[in-house]
Design a protein that fits this description.
Largest sheet of chain A: none
Largest sheet of chain B: 5 strands, mixed
Bound molecules: copper (II) ion
Strand content of chain A: under 5%
CATH architecture of the largest domain in chain B: Sandwich
CATH topology of the largest domain in chain B: Immunoglobulin-like
Radius of gyration of chain A: 23 Å
CATH class of the largest domain in chain B: Mainly Beta
Largest interface: A-B, 96 and 104 residues
Order of helices and strands of chain B: HHHEEEHEEEEEEEH
Oligomer: heterodimer
Distance between the termini of chain A: 19 Å
Distance between the termini of chain B: 67 Å
Number of strands of chain A: 0
């Protein structure tokens, strides 16, 4: 390690790290780009989170206190688009940028200039999206799924939303190509695919999913655009079009998209649990195969989002059965993580705490997912708060907690400093308790009959909505602690060792100095 | 006052966990059709399966977290790496559970899709933002819109406390009326955008899509008033197009139908008469 330290120290001198604004605008370094992605995602989490708090504010009690219902719909729509495309996806791309070269022993990402484009598209895309709030007719209000004919009724926000989605899609595809090329070509000698760290594996599969489905989304929204402005009738029944076809195309993108949001989270958790259990991941091969099975199944379950559109019985049967099947590889993953902890030697640093919360709470989201697969019961759940609770459980204490776990895990490697463990634990406990106060009651609301995407509700739903809103505000404001911890850690703090954690550190990223050198591995390490 | 409400709500959250399975304000209603009862049965069955799995899996997790702590001197067993046997076991058992669950679900699904032998057919059309009910072959058709009291109270900043409004947002001017113990077939379509007709007590939720006619059915077994809401985002007033179905005895239904038909007839006969009068 002493050797690595001196190496890093003199590295600094001949690193010709560009300086000033140019370092960021023309960035080609995977770490700089990774940092920009993470910062962008963090900003978007706060933008989308502010929208969520406005929603919870209006829903605190029955009656329309603050907003016009149309504006409320815009909030709901933009909250989803911002969180999915601006928050979770860029955060994982940021983690991929930072960690993949470090984990596979490469100097950088394979296509650094494309990496730059793929990031810099995003701020423009979201400027377009958010500026649509100031157009005639307000922001997009047809739901993030943009179902026609409703989405075709939009005003001037419509083309802005569509172009924003096109740009996000282009950005995602470029990011995905970069991940695939990097992992396929730049692994250190001796690192066979079945020695690849699981974070890289899950990202590799995610990248293939992205390339497969983002063009489908782009096609769907382009058809919406031509329906709106160029007189086509792909989805417009008045011209002989088929609005249900849009839903099929959209969810053919949309369901794999769900796994695009969660597979990298599986990867992060698969790195953290072994570290703090001080034991290798149980069933590595099974984990890889389970990830691949989930990805495959994700292409043949899309219509479970549309049980109520009136599919033929055989179609409903097929999508019910295939959806239930997804529980099997997902179960394998949960069982393997659990067994990794079995007879381990566990400690509970902040990354492990978030990974454990992920394990429990994602599993709750998995259970409600299994319930939703049962088509006859789904008729009662569909488009209610039960579904809202379900996907928020898999996305917030699922994907978002995994992102936070990953940040807490690798932050010392990025900055070279340890952060405040006690503040991070405060962040953890506040987030974990409040996220349940926020989302658990929404199961009850849905079962009791409250539809989703409504700005006002019947008085019988008041109590749980109040509880949920209180949880929402605690959760939202707790995230300020996250920013404080990161800010302090960037500014200074106790010096981190190369190994950072007192745990089982198998990854190559722990063999380089903290902070990691500007060019990760100039000579490839040997893997035995 | 607000604090007390929040506190009692938080208390309710804790108390609700065991009560979850039974209390209807936290759970699906039993409903008033055979299908709704079956659907609730499926829901509870899959719920309890999830509970059992959760107890087992969370149990192992919690046991590990409590027992295998480094701070308690636990040493990691580095030999526990993989086992094809357990991987096969925890693949096969879930598959078996899923098949066990899929069979009754498929049976109910078949029943739900069987719209044959209906005794009454009603065409339901979703509009932005109201419903239209046409009793096919009976010459009765009307619109059903949010009632005036709710509509005043729901305007942004109206200052009217929704708690003072009877059946706030779940009341309409003209409810759909159907006879009890009668298989009613619904033909659903949308006039402008996609809506979704949902009455939880009948376990019917079906999209009303422009250019499509969807079918659904229910056979209510109890006289009463049942409410629901549009379940597919349909624009600005999506939250304000409730559904009210009044289930009445067969005799009352016949009476209601006759009244409606008579009213419809006078409407059509007086309208031309008025036109002639105006022309004169
Ligand atoms: Cu509607």
């Amino acid at each position: 390690m002493a050797h690595a330290d001196t190496h890093a120290a003199d590295h600094h001198d001949h690193d010709h790290k560009p300086s000033g604004i140019g370092r960021w605008l023309f960035a080609t370094n995977h770490k700089d780009i990774g940092t920009m992605y993470m910062v962008f995602a963090l900003i978007m989490f706060f933008v989308g989170g502010a929208m969520a708090l406005l929603i919870r504010l209006e829903l605190f009690k029955p009656g329309m206190q603050f907003f016009d219902p149309g504006f409320y719909n815009s909030l709901v729509t933009s909250h989803a688009l911002v969180m999915i495309f601006g928050g979770v996806m860029p955060a994982f791309v940021g983690l991929a940028n930072w960690m993949i070269p470090l984990q596979i022993g490469a100097p950088d990402m394979a296509l650094p200039r494309m990496n730059n484009y793929s990031f810099w598209i995003l701020p423009f895309a979201f400027t377009l999206l958010i500026s649509s709030f100031f157009t005639a007719g307000g922001g997009p209000a047809g739901g993030w799924t943009l179902y026609p004919p409703l989405s075709l009724q939009a005003g001037d926000s419509f083309p802005l939303t569509i172009f924003a989605i096109h740009m996000m899609g282009a950005s995602s595809i470029m990011g995905a190509i970069n991940v695939i090329v990097t992992i396929m070509n730049m692994r250190a000698p001796g690192m066979t695919l079945l020695k690849l760290p699981l974070f890289c594996w899950t990202w590799l599969i995610t990248a293939y999913l992205l390339i497969a489905v983002m063009p489908v989304l782009a096609g769907a929204v382009t058809m919406l655009l031509t329906d709106h402005y160029f007189g086509t009738s792909f989805f417009n029944p008045a011209g002989g079009g088929d609005p249900v076809m849009y839903q099929h195309i959209f969810w053919f993108f949309g369901h794999p998209e769900v796994y695009i949001l969660i597979l990298p989270a599986f990867g992060v958790v698969s790195e953290i649990i072994p570290t703090f259990s001080r034991k290798p991941l149980f069933g590595y091969d099974a984990m890889v195969y389970a990830t691949a099975s989930i990805a495959f199944l994700s292409f043949i379950v899309w219509a479970h989002h549309m049980f109520t559109v009136g599919m033929p019985l055989s179609g409903q049967m097929f999508f019910m059965m295939s959806t239930m099947l997804i529980a099997v590889p997902t179960g394998v993953k949960v069982f393997n993580w659990t067994t990794t902890m079995w007879r381990g030697s566990l400690s509970f640093e902040p990354p492990m705490l978030f990974a454990l919360a992920f394990l429990f709470l994602f599993t709750i989201g998995g259970f409600s997912g299994l319930m939703l697969a049962i088509a006859p019961a789904d008729f009662q759940y569909q488009d209610t708060y039960f579904v809202v609770a379900h996907f928020h459980y898999v996305l917030v204490p699922g994907a978002v907690f995994a992102i936070m776990a990953g940040v807490y895990y690798w932050l010392p490697k990025w900055t070279g400093h340890m952060y405040s463990m006690s503040l991070a634990k405060w962040h953890f406990w506040l987030s974990t308790v409040s996220v349940n106060i926020l989302f658990f009651p929404q199961h009850f609301l849905g079962l009791a009959g409250m539809p989703r995407r409504i700005p006002d509700y019947s008085t019988q739903f008041t109590d749980w909505n109040m509880v949920s809103s209180v949880g929402g505000f605690i959760f939202g404001f707790s995230q300020i602690l996250f920013v404080v911890v990161i800010w302090q850690c960037v500014r200074g703090g106790e010096k981190a060792t190369d190994k950072v954690w007192d745990g089982r550190m198998d990854g190559l990223e722990w063999t380089v100095s903290s902070p990691a050198p500007y060019h990760s591995f100039e000579t490839a390490p040997e893997i035995h | 006052m607000l604090n007390r409400k929040v506190l009692s709500a938080l208390g309710g959250l804790l108390a609700a966990v065991p009560a979850f399975a039974y209390e209807s304000s936290y759970n699906l209603p039993h409903g008033v059709t055979q299908i709704s009862e079956e659907v609730r049965g499926l829901h509870m069955q899959i719920f309890w399966i999830c509970v059992v799995i959760a107890v087992a899996v969370f149990g192992v997790m919690i046991y590990s977290i409590v027992t295998f702590r480094k701070s308690k001197g636990a040493v990691a067993d580095q030999t526990l790496l993989h086992s094809t046997k357990v991987e096969v076991i925890w693949t096969v058992i879930p598959v078996a559970i899923l098949i066990f669950m899929a069979v009754p679900a498929a049976k109910t699904l078949v029943k739900m899709e069987d719209t044959r032998n209906a005794e009454l057919s009603v065409k339901v059309t979703g509009y932005q933002w109201k419903w239209q009910y046409e009793y096919l072959g009976k010459g009765v058709s009307f619109y059903s819109t949010l009632d005036t009291d709710s509509n005043y109270a729901r305007q942004t900043g109206s200052g009217i406390d929704p708690n003072t409004v009877k059946d706030y947002l779940l009341n309409v001017d003209n409810p759909m009326v159907v006879p009890v113990d009668t298989k009613v077939r619904l033909l659903l379509t949308g006039n402008d955008v996609i809506h979704s007709w949902w009455v939880p007590d009948f376990a019917v939720k079906k999209d009303a899509i422009p250019g499509f006619i969807n079918e659904a059915w229910f056979k209510a077994e109890k006289v009463g008033r049942y409410t629901g809401q549009c379940a597919e985002l349909c624009g600005r007033d999506h939250g304000f197009m409730p559904i009210v179905v009044t289930v009445v005895s067969k005799e009352d239904f016949a009476k209601w139908l006759a009244e409606q038909q008579a009213a419809a007839k006078t409407a059509t006969t007086t309208a031309p008469a008025a036109a002639t009068a105006a022309a004169l």
